């Protein structure tokens, strides 16, 4: 056995070296036949493989090639060498060994190309693939000869040919195309028109970030939907303006128009006004701006986050105004506040009526000269002084209006004209303090101190800095909105439930709907977390009887059951 | 002796009443105030995040203005 193996070893290597080159030959067939006749020789092969030195190991795979020619290099080396046992030498006794041997023999018997097929998956090492490729590549170029141009370049790959084109004389053609491309870039349909339509033409490198962000289009878009998709808040303001229920809003509109419209015709007055009114006009504008800002803010807040720039100026004015106004006026007018207010409201109604009905400057013209007068007098003239000024304009409406004013002024006779300036501002300030809800009831905005305390408490966890004044103002405003929203929600819930009063269940329903109360978070746990103990206690006290009632019911049922 | 006012209770009641035109049952205002507290917390939190993103220190009016619409919507029933 060992002798045969040695013989084989000696014989096969040259054959196989030939065989690998030829890939097919009678030698292989002989070997196959040999392998088929003698299944045993496999063991000697391995033996030789294990015993043989490195060159021998080289050969062993070639020996094994007899069984699986291509793959032999890989598989047999690891497999059979490890598997190899002296017991194999003897005839295989176990069924497994027998079957394995038989399979091997079968594999050896299969025709060469089929064997290769089966082993192809195993054989696909990169090296094999490369070898295959090299064979394919080496053969192809000869028969194909695709390029008709230059016979010298035929052997080259198409990829190389491309390079040649760039290097070659053909460069002219791409150059021609290049300038054309540049021209297209300049004139291209895609870039220029959008710019030209609205904006001045700018070269690409200019930083036109600000110019292109012109808000013409955007604002027009945002304003339209503002009207279309009015939220509750904006709806409310719109309604108020239409119905004229809210005198304040109405008058604000009126005054806002009056500020500007009459000033144009009365050039003479205008100068004086602007000279004298600088302080007051800014204040007034701030006030009007704020009044407008209230309704518009709601919308802007809802629809555009981008509009902060618009909001800011109004609020910037607002805040100092708020503090200054009361300081000036309150000491003076405390005595006669109430009659004044009434008169003012009448005035405002008149303004509104005129502005709405005539759309004229008559109503508007009234106020403008008044402010002008106020400034002219500037603390020197008396009330008669401005009545004479009023006389300049002849209008029945004006007369009537003036009478009212004078009636009001009669009560204020002793006051200086400065007073009258404040007289115009004061009601507005008053309006700001007490707001009118949609229903028409007055309410005042939430306590600033409370908001500040709460917000500071919350803000501490985020940052050390305290809340600034204008932030607080925004917070208070937001608070008012929140209560308005909450109130309307509660009302809706109560209406739905057919209740006259708003009950806890409504609030809890609202909180549940806004996911503040969930299955895991009860109102009590929230209250425990958020509220001071006293309030918590009150909540408990209130809800205690309910619990009792439920318990009692349960108890009753239990008793019944027991009785049964 | 009652503790110092924890929040302007009467005012809150009045405000809600003005918006709803309905009487409030007994401890509703506390719950409303609780909801408001949550709201303000959320508002401040969001504003802090926004202002931090903008690189500002603390909470600015701008950041509050930016987030309040969203937060209001979140608390809308």
UniProtKB/TrEMBL annotation, chain A:
Residues 121-143 have a biased composition (Basic and acidic residues). GO terms for biological process: replication fork processing; resolution of meiotic recombination intermediates. Residues 1-27, 39-157, 333-372, 407-438, 541-564 are annotated as: Disordered. GO terms for cellular component: chromosome; FANCM-MHF complex. It is found in: Chromosome; Nucleus. One of its GO terms (molecular function) is chromatin binding. InterPro entries: CENP-T/H4_C, Histone-fold. CDD domains: HFD_CENP-T. The keyword Nucleus applies. Coiled coil: none annotated. Keywords: Chromosome, Nucleus. This is CENP-T/Histone H4 histone fold domain-containing protein.
TrEMBL record, chain B:
SUPFAM superfamilies: Histone-fold. CDD domains: HFD_CENP-W. The keyword Nucleus applies. One of its GO terms (molecular function) is protein heterodimerization activity. One of its GO terms (biological process) is chromosome segregation. Its main location: nucleus. Keywords: Centromere, Chromosome, Kinetochore, Nucleus. It comes from the Eukaryota. Gene3D superfamilies: Histone, subunit A. InterPro entries: CENP-W/WIP1 (IPR052484), Histone-fold (IPR009072). It is found in: Chromosome, Centromere, Kinetochore; Nucleus. One of its GO terms (cellular component) is nucleoplasm. Belongs to the CENP-W/WIP1 family. This is Transcription factor CBF/NF-Y/archaeal histone domain-containing protein. It comes from Melanomma pulvis-pyrius CBS 109.77. The lineage of its organism: Eukaryota, Fungi, Dikarya, Ascomycota, Pezizomycotina.
